[in-house]
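Q: Please design a sequence for this.
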């Protein structure tokens, strides 16, 4: 039987870089076609007119224009309505 606890069981030592999420172009700023407006995990903000959402939920500009944000009430699958921000390019 061992008298000493076995070594080599360090945890929480891995360090990964941040994902650089968030708003990249704010309301009133000019954007060109394809530019990233928001990087996000999940669809917390919705893509409106003049924008599209890619597979990783990043919102891009569909055309040249000016970015705008507005609050919308969105109905969930359960029937509950919740406020969500809609991103548009006009």
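A: Design:
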């Amino acid at each position: 039987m061992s008298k000493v606890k076995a070594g080599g069981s360090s945890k929480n030592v891995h360090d990964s870089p941040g994902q650089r999420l968030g708003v990249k172009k704010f309301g009133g700023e000019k954007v060109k076609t394809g530019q990233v407006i928001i990087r996000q995990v999940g669809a917390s903000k919705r893509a409106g007119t003049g924008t599209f959402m890619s597979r990783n939920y990043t919102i891009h500009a569909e055309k040249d224009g000016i970015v705008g944000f507005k609050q919308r009430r969105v109905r969930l699958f359960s029937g509950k309505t919740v406020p969500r921000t809609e991103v548009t390019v006009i």
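Q: Thanks. Anything notable?
A: The mean pLDDT is 92. The radius of gyration is 21 Å.
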